[in-house]
Write a structure and sequence with these properties.
elongated; 0% strand; 2 domains; DNA-binding; mainly alpha
Length: 172
């Protein structure tokens, strides 16, 4: 018995939506924005479902492209700053590891979208240099340089994090 494309799509979403949402959240830094990215990508994928041979990389690429595009649009709009973040976090109330994670998350959100996408793909999604380049439609050398720049910036923003334990020194 042949499975209908609609049933195939439902099975894909049921089995992979949580992974796609996790990656989108790491990019966007906001659950609602992540859900919007995934929903938009899945809606577009459904319209092309019969022509997609390998859906997960296809949908993942759509998420990253949509994220980068949305950031370009946001950059053109003036940003209204409501409050400034403190220079140092109050570590007295929280465990130091939690504080560092929060600072790292904030630092990630300060990175340009392309650099953040590279780190998410390489370290959260555990893709190789070549796989990351394919998803982002660029050369492996570009991924390597973006990774290097992003990690350097993160080290500047969160100097008290033990980087040797966090990212294996960028040697992926």
């Amino acid at each position: 018995m042949e499975v209908s494309p609609e049933a195939e799509f439902r099975d894909f979403v049921a089995g992979r939506a949580h992974v796609l949402l996790r990656a989108a959240y790491a990019l966007a830094g906001d659950r609602h924005a992540a859900e919007d990215l995934v929903q938009s990508a899945l809606a577009k994928a459904f319209a092309r479902w019969r022509r997609i041979s390998d859906p997960e990389p296809y949908v993942r690429k759509m998420i990253y492209n949509e994220f980068v595009s949305s950031r370009r649009i946001q950059r053109r709009r003036p940003e209204i700053v409501v409050a400034q973040l403190p220079d140092r976090w109050d570590g007295a109330r929280l465990e130091s590891e939690t504080v560092l994670r929060l600072r790292l998350r904030e630092a990630l959100l300060l990175l340009p979208p392309r650099q953040r996408a590279v780190l998410v793909l390489r370290y959260l999604e555990d893709l190789t240099l070549a796989e990351t380049a394919e998803v982002l439609s660029c050369r492996a050398g570009t991924v390597a340089s973006q990774t290097s720049r992003a990690l350097l910036k993160l080290r500047e923003l969160v100097p008290d994090l033990d980087w040797s334990a966090s990212f294996a020194g960028g040697q992926r």
